[in-house]
Specification:
The chain has 295 residues and is of the alpha/beta class. The protein has 3 domains: 82 residues, Winged helix-like DNA-binding domain superfamily/Winged helix DNA-binding domain (Arc Repressor Mutant, subunit A), CATH 1.10.10.10; 95 residues, Periplasmic binding protein-like II (D-Maltodextrin-Binding Protein, domain 2); 104 residues, Periplasmic binding protein-like II (D-Maltodextrin-Binding Protein, domain 2, 3-Layer(aba) Sandwich), CATH 3.40.190. Helix content is 39%, strand content 23%. It has 10 helices and 13 strands. The strands form 3 sheets. Strands 3, 4, 5, 6, 7, 10, 11, 12 and 13 form a 9-stranded mixed β-sheet that branches. Strands 1-2 form a two-stranded antiparallel sheet. It has a two-stranded antiparallel ribbon with strand order 8-9. A hairpin with a 4-residue loop joins strand 1 and strand 2. The longest helix is centred in the first third of the chain and has 27 residues. The radius of gyration is 24 Å and the shape is elongated.
Length: 295
């Protein structure tokens, strides 16, 4: 008796989601149906793929080896379906996109209605992480990354760039005054990134050189949290245009030290594994986003 696609899908879903219940929800099946599919698969293979404990499921050594083969088979099937969809000029299927929270909220979410109208057969799954994720482990098709890329195993598609500015709210400036020079920042509340120290190098020209090493008096791990703190009048922050354009237009955030600010732009790239076949839905998303990002 041959292994079926249904059994492979059940096995992969259980591994990726961590539980049979979550896999059943993901695949729209019953818990008993997923359990039976796993049982049939293990019986056909004559081995145990998953150890079942009271709290979680763990892959056996045989399960680890079989999982790689199962993923390759299912990925090949997905690719074949994508190629057929491309021939029909109607990209279809699930597209998993990962991005940091600020970019997701301010640059992707507002474009989702238009994308869905243009590509109604693509189902989007939007996930957020503040740090770079492992695309394979998180089953991510595309990740949007801000800043310089260091992972040579990834293929990158440039989407644009976003300028950095030093900003504060009118309420903060009314309470604490406006810095007249870069050195004045030492006497102000500085909102910085608590996990990525490189983001605390602000693009300000001064006696220290072409960047100001801001020592945060208030730290946050998310750019969106930093933005909200700045809007709340909690200090001065260095933030990218993609998340603050509307705030500046409304006057809710004000750029500081304009004459001392260098034109530094963070590159925005969409990345995916080099050995990933470029599906029609990935191409559709990349072309759509690239056409709508500022350079």
């Amino acid at each position: 008796m041959q292994t079926t696609i249904e059994e492979l899908l059940a096995f992969r879903a259980v591994v990726d989601s961590g539980t049979i219940t979550a896999a059943a929800d993901q695949l729209g099946q019953t818990v008993s149906g997923i359990s039976r599919a796993l049982g049939r698969l293990e019986k056909k293979l004559g081995t145990t793929l998953l150890r079942r404990t009271t709290r979680r499921l763990e892959l056996t050594e045989e399960g680890q080896a079989f999982l790689a083969r199962a993923r390759a088979i299912l990925d090949a099937l997905d690719q074949a379906e994508d190629e057929l969809a491309a021939r029909r000029q109607a990209p279809a299927g699930l597209l998993r996109v990962n991005a940091a929270t600020p970019f997701m909220l301010h640059a992707i979410v507002p474009l989702v209605p238009e994308f869905s109208r243009l590509f109604p057969r693509i189902s989007l799954e939007l996930n957020t992480d503040e740090l770079n994720v492992d695309l394979l482990a998180r089953r991510t098709d595309i990740a949007i990354r801000i800043g310089e890329l260091r992972d040579s195993t990834l293929h990158a598609r440039p989407l644009g760039a976003s300028r950095l500015r030093v900003l504060a709210s009118p309420a903060y400036l009314a309470a604490h005054g406006r810095p007249a020079c870069v050195a004045d920042l030492d006497r102000h509340q500085r909102i910085g990134n608590s996990q990525l120290p490189g983001l605390n190098l602000w693009p300000l020209r001064g006696p220290h050189g072409d960047s100001y090493a801001a020592v945060p008096t208030l730290g946050a791990s998310s750019g969106e949290t930093m933005r909200q703190l700045a809007l709340a009048g909690m200090g001065i922050a260095c933030l990218a245009d993609f998340m603050t354009d509307a705030d500046r237009q409304r006057g809710e955030l004000v750029q500081l030290l304009v004459r001392d600010t260098l034109d530094v732009r963070q590159p925005v790239n969409a990345v995916y594994y080099r050995n990933t076949a470029l599906s029609s839905r990935i191409s559709a998303f990349l072309d759509f986003m690239a056409a709508r990002q500022p350079s």
